[in-house]
Amino acid sequence: MATLLLTNIGQLTTVDQNARVLEHAAVLIQDSLIAWVGDMGQAPQADESIDLGGRAVLPGWVDSHSHLIFGGDRAEEFVARMAGQSYAAGGIAVTTSATSQLSDNELSEAVAARRAEALAMGTTWMETKTGYGLAVDEETRHSVLGKPLVDSLTFLGAHLVPAGWDADEYTELVTGPMLDAVADNVDFVDVFCERGAFTEEQSRRVLEAARAKGLATKVHGNQLGPGPGVQLAVEFGSHSVDHVNYLEEEDIQALAGSWAGWDSATRTGTPGTVATCLPACDLSTRQPLAPGRELLDAGVRIALASNCNPGTSYTSNMNFCVATAVLQMNLSLAEAIEAATYGGALALGVAGQTGSIEVGKRADLHVLDAPVAAHLAYRPGMNLTHSVYRAGKAI
Ligand code: NIG
Questions:
Q1: Cβ of residue 223 lying under 6 Å from some atom of ligand 1
Q2: Whose CA is nearest to atom 8 of ligand 1?
Q3: How far is the CA of 293 from the centre of ligand 1 (A)?
Q4: How do the domains of the chain map onto residue ranges?
Q5: Over the stretch 236-265, which tens digit does the pLDDT of each residue have?
Q6: Burial class for 84, CB neighbours closer than 10 Å (0-12, 13-18, 19+)
Q7: What is this structure's pTM?
Q8: 61-347 CATH fold
Q9: What's the confidence (pLDDT) of residue 90?
Q10: Whose Cα sits closest to atom 5 in ligand 1?
Q11: According to CATH, what is the number of the domain 3-59+356-394?
Protein backbone atom coordinates (compact mmCIF):
# COMPACT_ATOMS: atom_id res chain seq x y z
CA MET A 1 0.00 0.00 0.00
CA ALA A 2 1.46 3.37 -1.02
CA THR A 3 2.07 6.03 1.61
CA LEU A 4 2.50 9.77 1.15
CA LEU A 5 3.59 12.17 3.88
CA LEU A 6 2.56 15.81 3.65
CA THR A 7 4.97 17.54 5.97
CA ASN A 8 6.09 21.01 7.10
CA ILE A 9 2.45 22.14 7.41
CA GLY A 10 2.53 25.58 9.08
CA GLN A 11 -0.99 25.32 10.45
CA LEU A 12 -3.25 22.27 10.27
CA THR A 13 -6.94 22.96 10.92
CA THR A 14 -8.31 19.48 11.59
CA VAL A 15 -12.02 20.29 12.24
CA ASP A 16 -11.99 17.19 14.45
CA GLN A 17 -14.28 16.97 17.50
CA ASN A 18 -11.73 18.87 19.60
CA ALA A 19 -11.24 21.50 16.87
CA ARG A 20 -7.50 20.88 17.02
CA VAL A 21 -5.28 23.33 15.21
CA LEU A 22 -1.68 22.04 15.00
CA GLU A 23 1.50 23.89 14.08
CA HIS A 24 4.52 22.28 12.38
CA ALA A 25 2.32 19.32 11.54
CA ALA A 26 2.27 16.42 9.12
CA VAL A 27 -0.40 14.13 7.66
CA LEU A 28 0.27 10.60 6.45
CA ILE A 29 -1.92 9.35 3.59
CA GLN A 30 -2.18 5.65 2.88
CA ASP A 31 -3.84 5.04 -0.48
CA SER A 32 -7.05 7.09 -0.27
CA LEU A 33 -7.25 7.47 3.52
CA ILE A 34 -5.67 9.50 6.31
CA ALA A 35 -3.41 7.15 8.30
CA TRP A 36 -1.71 9.47 10.79
CA VAL A 37 -1.92 13.14 11.93
CA GLY A 38 0.51 14.88 14.27
CA ASP A 39 3.72 16.77 14.92
CA MET A 40 6.04 16.71 11.91
CA GLY A 41 8.99 15.79 14.16
CA GLN A 42 7.31 12.51 15.01
CA ALA A 43 5.98 11.60 11.60
CA PRO A 44 6.35 8.02 10.38
CA GLN A 45 8.40 7.11 7.30
CA ALA A 46 6.54 7.14 4.00
CA ASP A 47 7.16 6.04 0.40
CA GLU A 48 7.00 9.66 -0.68
CA SER A 49 7.16 12.95 1.18
CA ILE A 50 6.05 16.43 0.12
CA ASP A 51 7.30 19.52 1.97
CA LEU A 52 4.47 22.06 2.07
CA GLY A 53 6.78 24.92 3.02
CA GLY A 54 4.89 26.06 6.10
CA ARG A 55 1.56 26.41 4.31
CA ALA A 56 -1.81 26.04 6.01
CA VAL A 57 -3.88 22.89 5.42
CA LEU A 58 -7.55 22.30 6.09
CA PRO A 59 -10.11 19.67 5.06
CA GLY A 60 -11.33 19.93 1.49
CA TRP A 61 -14.60 21.83 1.20
CA VAL A 62 -17.82 19.80 1.26
CA ASP A 63 -20.20 21.74 -0.98
CA SER A 64 -23.59 20.35 -0.02
CA HIS A 65 -25.80 22.41 -2.34
CA SER A 66 -25.29 23.07 -6.05
CA HIS A 67 -27.20 22.84 -9.34
CA LEU A 68 -24.49 22.03 -11.89
CA ILE A 69 -26.64 20.23 -14.48
CA PHE A 70 -27.62 23.06 -16.77
CA GLY A 71 -27.09 24.73 -20.13
CA GLY A 72 -26.87 28.43 -20.95
CA ASP A 73 -26.56 31.29 -18.51
CA ARG A 74 -28.79 34.08 -17.22
CA ALA A 75 -26.48 37.07 -17.17
CA GLU A 76 -29.27 39.31 -18.51
CA GLU A 77 -31.53 38.35 -15.62
CA PHE A 78 -28.67 39.10 -13.22
CA VAL A 79 -28.09 42.54 -14.77
CA ALA A 80 -31.82 43.32 -14.52
CA ARG A 81 -31.76 42.24 -10.90
CA MET A 82 -28.84 44.53 -10.13
CA ALA A 83 -30.93 47.28 -11.72
CA GLY A 84 -33.71 46.66 -9.22
CA GLN A 85 -35.78 43.72 -10.42
CA SER A 86 -36.40 41.11 -7.75
CA TYR A 87 -35.63 37.39 -8.12
CA ALA A 88 -38.54 35.11 -9.02
CA ALA A 89 -38.47 31.34 -9.44
CA GLY A 90 -39.78 31.68 -13.02
CA GLY A 91 -36.22 32.07 -14.37
CA ILE A 92 -35.78 28.33 -13.80
CA ALA A 93 -37.85 27.74 -16.95
CA VAL A 94 -35.31 29.67 -19.05
CA THR A 95 -32.56 27.30 -17.93
CA THR A 96 -34.78 24.26 -18.40
CA SER A 97 -35.28 25.21 -22.03
CA ALA A 98 -31.56 25.90 -22.62
CA THR A 99 -30.59 22.61 -20.97
CA SER A 100 -32.98 20.55 -23.09
CA GLN A 101 -31.14 21.73 -26.19
CA LEU A 102 -27.81 20.18 -25.14
CA SER A 103 -26.81 16.70 -26.30
CA ASP A 104 -25.79 14.16 -23.67
CA ASN A 105 -22.11 14.81 -24.44
CA GLU A 106 -22.46 18.56 -24.27
CA LEU A 107 -24.31 18.40 -20.97
CA SER A 108 -21.85 15.93 -19.42
CA GLU A 109 -18.91 18.05 -20.50
CA ALA A 110 -20.49 21.18 -19.04
CA VAL A 111 -21.11 19.47 -15.69
CA ALA A 112 -17.62 17.92 -15.62
CA ALA A 113 -16.03 21.31 -16.34
CA ARG A 114 -17.98 22.91 -13.48
CA ARG A 115 -17.01 20.08 -11.14
CA ALA A 116 -13.35 20.45 -12.12
CA GLU A 117 -13.50 24.19 -11.52
CA ALA A 118 -14.82 23.63 -7.98
CA LEU A 119 -12.25 20.91 -7.27
CA ALA A 120 -9.43 23.23 -8.30
CA MET A 121 -10.66 25.65 -5.61
CA GLY A 122 -10.63 23.05 -2.87
CA THR A 123 -14.04 21.35 -3.10
CA THR A 124 -13.31 17.66 -2.63
CA TRP A 125 -16.90 16.49 -2.04
CA MET A 126 -19.69 18.00 -4.11
CA GLU A 127 -23.41 17.47 -4.16
CA THR A 128 -25.49 18.52 -7.11
CA LYS A 129 -29.15 18.43 -8.05
CA THR A 130 -31.32 17.70 -11.01
CA GLY A 131 -34.17 20.19 -11.39
CA TYR A 132 -33.66 21.78 -14.80
CA GLY A 133 -35.36 18.86 -16.55
CA LEU A 134 -38.91 19.08 -15.20
CA ALA A 135 -40.10 16.19 -17.39
CA VAL A 136 -39.66 12.46 -16.81
CA ASP A 137 -37.24 11.91 -19.70
CA GLU A 138 -35.13 15.00 -19.00
CA GLU A 139 -34.94 14.51 -15.22
CA THR A 140 -33.94 10.89 -15.84
CA ARG A 141 -31.29 11.95 -18.39
CA HIS A 142 -29.88 14.51 -15.95
CA SER A 143 -29.72 11.98 -13.11
CA VAL A 144 -27.91 9.44 -15.31
CA LEU A 145 -25.42 11.99 -16.68
CA GLY A 146 -24.88 13.71 -13.34
CA LYS A 147 -24.38 10.68 -11.13
CA PRO A 148 -20.80 9.73 -12.12
CA LEU A 149 -19.63 13.34 -12.05
CA VAL A 150 -20.43 14.27 -8.44
CA ASP A 151 -20.18 12.72 -4.98
CA SER A 152 -23.84 13.08 -3.94
CA LEU A 153 -26.85 13.51 -6.21
CA THR A 154 -30.24 15.00 -5.33
CA PHE A 155 -33.50 14.72 -7.28
CA LEU A 156 -35.24 18.10 -7.54
CA GLY A 157 -38.08 17.40 -9.97
CA ALA A 158 -40.13 19.65 -7.68
CA HIS A 159 -38.16 22.75 -8.62
CA LEU A 160 -40.82 24.61 -10.60
CA VAL A 161 -44.25 23.78 -12.01
CA PRO A 162 -43.62 23.84 -15.79
CA ALA A 163 -45.78 26.06 -17.98
CA GLY A 164 -49.04 24.42 -19.01
CA TRP A 165 -49.18 22.11 -16.00
CA ASP A 166 -51.63 22.16 -13.13
CA ALA A 167 -49.49 22.23 -9.96
CA ASP A 168 -51.20 19.24 -8.33
CA GLU A 169 -51.00 17.16 -11.48
CA TYR A 170 -47.32 17.99 -11.87
CA THR A 171 -46.75 17.02 -8.22
CA GLU A 172 -48.40 13.67 -9.04
CA LEU A 173 -45.96 13.23 -11.90
CA VAL A 174 -42.96 14.08 -9.71
CA THR A 175 -44.00 11.77 -6.87
CA GLY A 176 -44.99 8.95 -9.24
CA PRO A 177 -43.35 8.19 -12.60
CA MET A 178 -40.54 10.73 -12.28
CA LEU A 179 -39.41 9.55 -8.86
CA ASP A 180 -39.71 5.92 -9.99
CA ALA A 181 -37.44 6.68 -12.95
CA VAL A 182 -34.66 8.41 -10.98
CA ALA A 183 -34.83 6.69 -7.58
CA ASP A 184 -31.93 4.29 -8.19
CA ASN A 185 -29.61 7.10 -9.25
CA VAL A 186 -30.07 9.57 -6.41
CA ASP A 187 -29.17 9.97 -2.74
CA PHE A 188 -31.74 12.63 -1.81
CA VAL A 189 -35.11 14.03 -2.82
CA ASP A 190 -35.53 17.81 -2.52
CA VAL A 191 -38.46 20.22 -3.00
CA PHE A 192 -38.56 23.98 -3.52
CA CYS A 193 -41.17 24.89 -0.90
CA GLU A 194 -41.82 28.55 -1.63
CA ARG A 195 -44.46 30.89 -2.95
CA GLY A 196 -44.22 30.63 -6.76
CA ALA A 197 -42.93 27.04 -6.54
CA PHE A 198 -44.56 24.31 -4.37
CA THR A 199 -47.09 24.79 -1.57
CA GLU A 200 -46.81 23.20 1.85
CA GLU A 201 -49.29 20.50 0.84
CA GLN A 202 -47.51 19.71 -2.43
CA SER A 203 -44.11 19.72 -0.68
CA ARG A 204 -45.47 17.32 1.92
CA ARG A 205 -46.51 14.94 -0.85
CA VAL A 206 -42.99 15.04 -2.31
CA LEU A 207 -41.42 14.30 1.08
CA GLU A 208 -43.91 11.50 1.76
CA ALA A 209 -43.15 9.91 -1.61
CA ALA A 210 -39.42 10.04 -0.84
CA ARG A 211 -39.99 8.48 2.55
CA ALA A 212 -42.04 5.69 0.99
CA LYS A 213 -39.09 4.93 -1.29
CA GLY A 214 -36.64 4.99 1.62
CA LEU A 215 -34.84 8.05 0.24
CA ALA A 216 -33.41 10.80 2.44
CA THR A 217 -34.72 14.33 1.94
CA LYS A 218 -33.79 17.99 1.74
CA VAL A 219 -35.95 21.11 1.45
CA HIS A 220 -35.35 24.47 -0.24
CA GLY A 221 -37.09 26.61 2.36
CA ASN A 222 -37.66 30.16 3.60
CA GLN A 223 -35.62 31.69 0.77
CA LEU A 224 -37.90 34.45 -0.49
CA GLY A 225 -40.08 34.95 2.57
CA PRO A 226 -41.27 33.26 5.75
CA GLY A 227 -42.91 29.91 5.05
CA PRO A 228 -43.43 26.31 6.06
CA GLY A 229 -40.20 24.88 4.59
CA VAL A 230 -38.17 24.72 7.80
CA GLN A 231 -40.98 23.15 9.84
CA LEU A 232 -41.61 20.56 7.13
CA ALA A 233 -37.93 19.66 6.93
CA VAL A 234 -37.76 19.14 10.69
CA GLU A 235 -41.02 17.17 10.72
CA PHE A 236 -39.70 14.81 8.04
CA GLY A 237 -36.23 14.50 9.59
CA SER A 238 -34.64 15.95 6.45
CA HIS A 239 -30.86 16.05 6.38
CA SER A 240 -31.00 19.78 5.66
CA VAL A 241 -33.14 22.77 4.92
CA ASP A 242 -31.39 25.14 2.57
CA HIS A 243 -31.49 28.94 2.12
CA VAL A 244 -33.17 29.78 5.49
CA ASN A 245 -33.14 33.54 4.89
CA TYR A 246 -36.48 34.35 6.52
CA LEU A 247 -36.80 32.57 9.85
CA GLU A 248 -39.28 33.07 12.66
CA GLU A 249 -38.26 32.27 16.23
CA GLU A 250 -40.30 29.01 16.03
CA ASP A 251 -38.27 27.94 13.00
CA ILE A 252 -34.99 28.39 14.85
CA GLN A 253 -36.37 26.56 17.89
CA ALA A 254 -37.62 23.68 15.72
CA LEU A 255 -34.20 23.35 14.10
CA ALA A 256 -32.45 23.49 17.48
CA GLY A 257 -34.84 20.87 18.85
CA SER A 258 -33.97 18.53 16.00
CA TRP A 259 -30.40 18.34 17.40
CA ALA A 260 -31.51 17.23 20.89
CA GLY A 261 -30.32 13.68 20.23
CA TRP A 262 -26.86 14.73 19.06
CA ASP A 263 -23.82 15.08 21.32
CA SER A 264 -21.62 17.77 19.78
CA ALA A 265 -18.70 17.01 22.11
CA THR A 266 -18.38 13.44 20.87
CA ARG A 267 -20.15 13.85 17.55
CA THR A 268 -22.36 10.89 18.30
CA GLY A 269 -26.11 10.33 18.45
CA THR A 270 -28.82 11.14 15.97
CA PRO A 271 -28.12 14.14 13.75
CA GLY A 272 -30.87 16.70 13.27
CA THR A 273 -31.68 18.96 10.32
CA VAL A 274 -28.74 21.07 9.17
CA ALA A 275 -29.53 24.69 8.23
CA THR A 276 -27.60 25.31 5.03
CA CYS A 277 -26.67 28.95 4.44
CA LEU A 278 -25.88 30.08 0.90
CA PRO A 279 -24.17 33.46 1.18
CA ALA A 280 -23.15 33.79 -2.48
CA CYS A 281 -26.80 33.35 -3.45
CA ASP A 282 -27.94 35.87 -0.86
CA LEU A 283 -25.58 38.47 -2.29
CA SER A 284 -26.51 37.71 -5.89
CA THR A 285 -30.23 37.98 -5.17
CA ARG A 286 -29.89 40.84 -2.69
CA GLN A 287 -31.69 38.86 -0.04
CA PRO A 288 -30.85 39.32 3.63
CA LEU A 289 -27.99 37.01 4.53
CA ALA A 290 -29.12 33.84 6.31
CA PRO A 291 -28.90 34.29 10.10
CA GLY A 292 -25.99 31.90 10.60
CA ARG A 293 -24.90 33.57 13.85
CA GLU A 294 -28.35 33.25 15.46
CA LEU A 295 -28.66 29.66 14.30
CA LEU A 296 -25.30 28.68 15.80
CA ASP A 297 -26.10 30.52 19.03
CA ALA A 298 -29.38 28.58 19.28
CA GLY A 299 -27.53 25.26 18.96
CA VAL A 300 -28.37 24.54 15.31
CA ARG A 301 -25.71 22.88 13.16
CA ILE A 302 -25.17 24.87 9.98
CA ALA A 303 -23.52 24.26 6.62
CA LEU A 304 -22.14 26.75 4.14
CA ALA A 305 -22.56 25.85 0.47
CA SER A 306 -22.13 27.55 -2.89
CA ASN A 307 -25.55 26.91 -4.48
CA CYS A 308 -23.74 27.17 -7.83
CA ASN A 309 -26.47 27.65 -10.47
CA PRO A 310 -27.06 30.00 -13.39
CA GLY A 311 -29.93 31.90 -11.77
CA THR A 312 -29.13 32.90 -8.23
CA SER A 313 -25.47 32.06 -7.57
CA TYR A 314 -23.14 31.47 -10.49
CA THR A 315 -20.07 30.60 -8.44
CA SER A 316 -18.72 27.43 -6.87
CA ASN A 317 -16.01 29.27 -4.95
CA MET A 318 -16.26 28.05 -1.36
CA ASN A 319 -13.33 30.27 -0.32
CA PHE A 320 -15.60 33.20 -1.19
CA CYS A 321 -18.53 31.72 0.78
CA VAL A 322 -16.34 31.22 3.85
CA ALA A 323 -14.92 34.76 3.61
CA THR A 324 -18.45 36.20 3.29
CA ALA A 325 -19.66 34.21 6.29
CA VAL A 326 -16.85 35.65 8.39
CA LEU A 327 -17.06 39.21 7.10
CA GLN A 328 -20.83 39.54 6.78
CA MET A 329 -22.53 36.86 8.88
CA ASN A 330 -20.48 37.28 12.06
CA LEU A 331 -19.11 33.75 12.08
CA SER A 332 -15.62 33.18 13.43
CA LEU A 333 -13.17 31.72 10.97
CA ALA A 334 -13.26 28.38 12.79
CA GLU A 335 -17.08 28.32 12.65
CA ALA A 336 -17.13 29.14 8.95
CA ILE A 337 -14.53 26.48 8.10
CA GLU A 338 -16.43 23.89 10.12
CA ALA A 339 -19.71 24.81 8.40
CA ALA A 340 -18.09 24.46 4.96
CA THR A 341 -16.51 21.09 5.75
CA TYR A 342 -17.98 19.03 8.58
CA GLY A 343 -21.32 20.89 8.40
CA GLY A 344 -21.65 20.08 4.71
CA ALA A 345 -20.75 16.46 5.43
CA LEU A 346 -23.52 16.29 8.05
CA ALA A 347 -25.97 17.78 5.56
CA LEU A 348 -25.08 14.98 3.15
CA GLY A 349 -24.90 12.16 5.69
CA VAL A 350 -21.21 11.55 4.93
CA ALA A 351 -19.59 12.91 8.10
CA GLY A 352 -18.10 9.47 8.77
CA GLN A 353 -16.15 9.69 5.51
CA THR A 354 -15.08 13.28 4.96
CA GLY A 355 -15.30 16.82 6.38
CA SER A 356 -12.41 16.64 8.88
CA ILE A 357 -8.78 15.55 9.00
CA GLU A 358 -8.87 12.42 11.13
CA VAL A 359 -7.37 8.95 10.90
CA GLY A 360 -9.59 6.67 8.83
CA LYS A 361 -11.32 9.44 6.88
CA ARG A 362 -10.88 10.00 3.17
CA ALA A 363 -7.74 12.03 2.49
CA ASP A 364 -9.51 15.17 1.25
CA LEU A 365 -7.17 18.09 1.89
CA HIS A 366 -6.93 21.71 0.85
CA VAL A 367 -3.49 23.34 0.95
CA LEU A 368 -3.57 27.13 1.10
CA ASP A 369 -0.96 29.45 -0.31
CA ALA A 370 -0.95 31.13 3.09
CA PRO A 371 0.64 30.44 6.48
CA VAL A 372 -2.67 30.42 8.39
CA ALA A 373 -6.28 29.73 7.42
CA ALA A 374 -7.32 33.22 8.59
CA HIS A 375 -6.03 34.49 5.24
CA LEU A 376 -9.24 33.11 3.67
CA ALA A 377 -11.16 36.04 5.15
CA TYR A 378 -8.22 38.40 5.71
CA ARG A 379 -7.39 38.36 1.97
CA PRO A 380 -10.88 37.95 0.47
CA GLY A 381 -11.10 37.42 -3.25
CA MET A 382 -7.49 36.25 -3.59
CA ASN A 383 -6.76 32.87 -5.10
CA LEU A 384 -5.40 31.14 -2.03
CA THR A 385 -5.66 27.51 -3.13
CA HIS A 386 -2.15 26.08 -3.51
CA SER A 387 -3.04 22.42 -4.06
CA VAL A 388 -5.82 19.93 -3.45
CA TYR A 389 -5.81 16.22 -2.54
CA ARG A 390 -8.98 14.23 -3.12
CA ALA A 391 -9.10 10.67 -1.79
CA GLY A 392 -5.33 10.86 -1.42
CA LYS A 393 -4.65 11.92 -5.01
CA ALA A 394 -3.14 15.28 -5.90
CA ILE A 395 -5.35 17.19 -8.29
O1 NIG B 1 -31.32 27.28 -4.98
N2 NIG B 1 -34.27 28.28 -5.13
C3 NIG B 1 -34.37 27.52 -6.02
N4 NIG B 1 -33.43 27.04 -6.84
C5 NIG B 1 -32.18 27.67 -7.11
C6 NIG B 1 -32.28 28.73 -8.14
C7 NIG B 1 -32.69 28.22 -9.42
C8 NIG B 1 -32.69 29.23 -10.55
O9 NIG B 1 -33.17 30.36 -10.42
O10 NIG B 1 -32.26 28.80 -11.62
C11 NIG B 1 -31.57 28.16 -5.83
O12 NIG B 1 -31.37 29.35 -5.62
A1: yes
A2: 311
A3: 23
A4: 3-59+356-394, 61-347
A5: 999 999 999 999 999 999 999 999 999 999
A6: exposed
A7: 0.97
A8: TIM Barrel (3.20.20)
A9: 81
A10: 312
A11: 2.30.40.10
